[in-house]
Design a protein that fits this description.
Layout lengths: L16 H7 L4 H12 L8 H26 L12 H5 L1
Helix pairs in contact: 2-3
């Protein structure tokens, strides 16, 4: 096994996960989640559950950041991540 290009990152057809991520224009969060899902149960000394948990955590963080951005754009969240209610808007 090549430490820089482990076999668990290649598909049966020889496609490399990094090329696939590039082709689909994935961002860092999406790429890391995909990486954890693909290698789940294949990396030495790393359980399938651990890798799937890492994928879930990565996607949860990404979702939370997207929601924060959306709420800020809607005027519902301040820059310091505090909810803005109608009373606060009047001040």
């Amino acid at each position: 096994m090549n430490k820089l290009k482990p076999s668990y990152y290649k598909s049966k057809s020889g496609q490399d996960i990094y090329n696939i991520a590039f082709d689909f224009n994935l961002n860092g969060f999406q790429m890391n989640a995909l990486k954890y899902i693909i290698r789940a149960g294949k990396k030495e000394n790393e359980s399938q559950i651990t890798d799937l948990s890492k994928a879930i955590e990565t996607l949860t963080r990404y979702k939370d950041l997207l929601l924060k951005k959306k709420y800020r754009e809607m005027g519902l969240l301040s820059d310091d991540d505090k909810l803005i209610n109608e009373e606060n808007k009047k001040e």
